[in-house]
Amino acid sequence: MRGKSGVVFLLLILSVILLTTGCWNRKELDRLAIVAAVGIDKGEDQKITLTVQVIKPEALKRPSSEGGSGKEKGVWIIKSSGNTIFDAVRNFVEKSGRKLFLPHTMVIVIGEKMAKDGVIPVIDWFLRDHEMRLQTWVLVAQGEASEVIKGDSGLEKIPASHLERMIEDYGALSKSVSSNLMEVTNMITCQSSHPVIGRISKNKSGQDDEEELILKGAGVFRKDRLIGWLNPFETRGYLWIKGKVKSGVITIPCPEHPDQLISLEIIKSKTKVKPRLEMGMLKYTIEVDVNSNLGEQMCTEDLANPEMIAVLEDEQRQAVEKEIVALIRKAQEEYKLDILGLGEATMREFPKEWNKVKEQWAEEFPQAEVEVKVNSRLSLTGMLKSLKTLK
Amino acid sequence: MEFGQKKHQPPTNKTKILKSTLAESVDLDSRLEVNLSQIKERFKGSVDVAYREFSLGFDLNKKAGLIYIDGLVSSEITNTSILKPLMFELLQNEELKNMVQGNLVEKIKNCALPNSSVREAKTFQEVIDGILFGDTALLLDDFHTALLIGTRGWEARGVDEPVTEAVVRGPREGFTETIGVNTALLRRKIKNEELRIESLNLGRQTKTQVYIAYIAGIVNKKIVTEVKKRLQRIDIDAILESGYIEQLIEDAPTSIFPTIGNTEKPDILAAKLLEGRVGIFVDGTPFVLTVPYLLIEGFQSAEDYYSRPYYSTVLRMIRYTAFFISVLFPALYVALQSFHPEMIPTSLLISMAGAREGVPFPAYIEAFGMGVAFEIMREAGVRMPRPIGQSVSIVGSLVLGQAAVSAGIVSNPMVIVVALTAIAGFVVTALTDTMALMRLFFLFCAASLGFFGLLMGMLFINIHLMKLRSFGIPYLYPMAPMNFEELKDVFIRAPFWTRIFRPGLLSKNQVRGSSSKPSPSKNQRNEES
Fold first, then answer.
1. Who contacts B56 (Cβ-Cβ below 8 Å, separation ≥6)?
2. Does A30 touch chain B (CB under 8 A)?
3. What ipTM was reported for this prediction?
């Protein structure tokens, strides 16, 4: 008898637990407005305006026998504003009818004004929400973020995934920075470093009136506020120091015909930032290993011999050094900001000394002595020796 | 009131049975007529019982009678090994003619019946039982003893390839409905006098023969005694299939997991006995029970051992994967898309959302409905004659599925999920029923609480499995409690030369062989060089 009543009791408890909770928090996919990209701007009245790309699943169905139109745009762009980001997000319901579902956001674009006033509200809101992914890319727009969100893509049905691909493939050029929500948060909250976020801008392209999105250069932040920009040249300098150069092209003049050029394809790079203590003074060595292949030569000399390769390696070393030095100069002289991560390196290597200097690091950094050392190597010269015999 | 009455009935029944059995164990009379009429009275109304009265060796004074059941005995055996010697060949034996009473039965038994099985019976019950099992009873006038002569020979299905356990490589013979043939098939595999086959009859009405088979040198004695104890506890009208016994002796009758295995193939049974298991043959069914039954046995197939170990190992992994797909896939799908869409990769989410657009039901109702539809189709296909079964599956799968999707009632991914689940469910054949139930259970968990519910459900099943025992052996052995030696046959199928020991908990004689890794012998190597 006891066993029987036990079972009944258990069933009763189970049914109460399961039925009263019901399907708590259940949300069917067709009730969600899946957001692909968010642009965040700040208006003159300090109100926050969100522009979002909402995916239209119907339009993205595989074109089947019913003839799903292939030309329909895959996203719906809507705007909403509010006093805070959360306020603005909830205000979307007024317009969209479905609740915004943000975890799948591929890119967050921060408008220039918003960035200049500080991005803390953005970071806070996205981090506080338990559903958000920290892998979401963050970009800073030159101008209005809404313009970027409205931009169309010639390739993808979802413009946001076009943006995402651009960011993911930055390495082919190494002329812009890719950073996701987590990296940005780390850089903002870290004691000494400051974030550098990739720059997206909408440009008029040459002849016709069409506008295109370009990911080039980067924005420099003092903690959470945008204070200036890096051009593509300096951006690569930044990436060298951070060890984030994946690939890219270095152009150098031909050894004997300086008017003709040679392209070297970077295949591997490695960076070490070494702080050292010399008579109580902190000094830094940035050591970069560059490994590249000969990708192209305009001149016809035979470069595939040890002597010429040594010459090319030297030229490559100079080219890389130039990029790095340009960035260091900009950081130390113009922005007076440690975007290089020297402070972090010091903290790791000399924790005691770091404790002494960390309070006045902002003043110390511009005076820091930085030595750049590039170990340049040219590995392969390709399938061709030279085209000299053609002449 | 009704309940009360029912509760009182069984004891009265039992006493009745006892009384009747007492009445039946009456000794045979010495007069042939009395005995015959008694037996005729007992078999009253049965047309298939044959009585043949005759005289021994042309002597009209020495009367005898044969009783047997038509169809159960082979008339050829009866004619040549009973009637012919008793009627004609006795003539030549002068000595017999003048035999004193007491020795005649003995003499006939020993000298006159060219039959391999002749038993003496003293009571009516013995005689009747013998007749019912297919023996022929020989009653002699003036004697208290009857002879039961083995003449069993009925029409039976031949040894055939079993449908449920088809193999690509391996023996194709399967057990039949006749218990004697089955034990012979087993004997042919294990030629060892240690193979014991013990008998008992179960079922008040059916008196079904049940044999317990084990290898005395290998088996864990405790398991054998436990099996016997549990079998003796059975009190039921009929045993028509080994499933009756399975359900009456299993460890966990309320669990959805089987704690007793069954097989239709002698080679599989032999392998299980050699690992220290006990087999239970039941007359009238080709399915032989094996105990103890562990969870991993569902994932092991005889062919794993017949083909080389590498692919067998891969197949085993595939079986585990298929098990998890079959049990968890619909639940995971529902949990992901109804509770945690943030966990799905973006591009997948977009196509899933596209497919779901316009579907009128929530995901879990879709999954449940499709699951039920599949079970209906399966059941229809199994019971139908083969040609119709095929058209059922075509109509069911192609027409219904396609139409449901294009009508927008179910989404395409759901059809894929259910179809994959269904196919995966057939990979682990021994656990197919269990998996169908688990699938429903997990679907319910996922539909009510998402991943949290799913996790709780898994914990529940896990704890349950941990608690299960099959004849004293933990159900999850050798994973929990872990036995490294035995793990060689769980997730992988290690080569025979690495497997020296038998399962520790199951058997006492541990060493099963000591072959070393095969390599060419030294002489051969020298010849080559």
1. B62, B63, B64, B86, B87, B90, B140
2. yes
3. 0.78
Residue A268 within a domain = yes
Say how many C-beta atoms besides its own lie within 10 A of residue B426's C-beta.
12
Domain boundaries, chain B: 25-149, 179-293, 305-474
Of A25, A57, A132, nearest to B353 by CB-CB distance is A57
The answer to the question of residue A3 being in a domain is no
Residue B389 sits at φ, ψ, to 5 deg, of: -55, -40
| Shared-domain flag, residues A125 and A222 | yes
Q: Side-chain half-sphere of B427: how many Cα atoms within 13 Å?
A: 19
Q: Is A34 on the interface with B (CB under 8 A)?
A: yes
Domain boundary among A230, A265, A285: A230
Single residue among A230, A264, A294 that ends a domain in this structure? A230
Q: Is A76 on the interface with B (CB under 8 A)?
A: no
Task: Give the pLDDT of residue A18.
Answer: 65
Residue numbers of the domain that contains A55 = 29-60+71-230
Structure tokens at A84: 């805070």
d(CA A27, nearest CA chain B) in Å? 5
Q: What is the pLDDT of residues B455-514, one digit of tens each?
A: 999 999 999 999 999 999 999 988 888 888 888 889 999 998 888 888 878 887 678 888
Q: Which pLDDT score is estimated for A65?
A: 45
pTM confidence score = 0.82
| Contact indicator for B175, B286 with CB cutoff of 8 Å | yes
Closest approach of B356 to chain A, Cα-based (Å): 6
Q: How many domains does chain A have?
A: 2
Looking at the structure, tell me whether residues A54 and A168 fall in a common domain. yes
With b for 16 or more beta-carbon neighbours within 10 A and e for fewer, the A113-137 pattern comes to bbbbebbebbbebbeeeeebbeebb
Sorting pLDDT into bands at 50, 70 and 90, what band is A316? very high
**Which residues does chain A have within 8 Å of residue B341's beta carbon, measured at their own beta carbons?**
27, 29, 32, 34, 101, 103-104
Facing B350 at nearest CB: one of A21, A30, A34: A34
Do residues A205 and A270 both lie within one domain? no
Taking CB atoms and an 8 Å cut-off, how many pairs form between chains A and B? 79
Contact B449, B230 (CB under 8 A): no
Q: Which residue of A has its CA nearest to B444?
A: A18
What confidence tens digit (pLDDT) does each residue in B181-199 have? 999 999 999 999 999 999 9
